[in-house]
Amino acid sequence: MMEDYELIDNTEEKQFEFHIGKYKPLIEYIISKNGEIYLTHTEVPVELEGKGVGSQLVKKVLTEIEKRKLRLVPMCPFVAGYIQKHPEWKSLIMRGINIG
Prior knowledge:
Layout: E1 8-10, E2 15-17, E3 26-31, E4 36-43, H1 53-67, E5 71-74, H2 77-85
Parallel strand pairs: 4-5
Antiparallel strand pairs: 1-2, 2-3, 3-4
């Protein structure tokens, strides 16, 4: 069973991150003044790949976006792919954005 990691919103670096030992998986974002959040890039250190860390990170970020009532623009293919596999998150996506 994978550990439950704490989501950290590093507003200075504009990224959500986990701190796992010396590793820092992250999702970079841009938040617009009118409440849109663009998830631009996901990075999971190669040492943590295949352990479900990226998926947990995306899920926690989406939960946070839902809580803040932001409209999501998933520019990162990893995030878009996660939402395709978990369509219950599609309601967060800004109208007119198609992730296929």
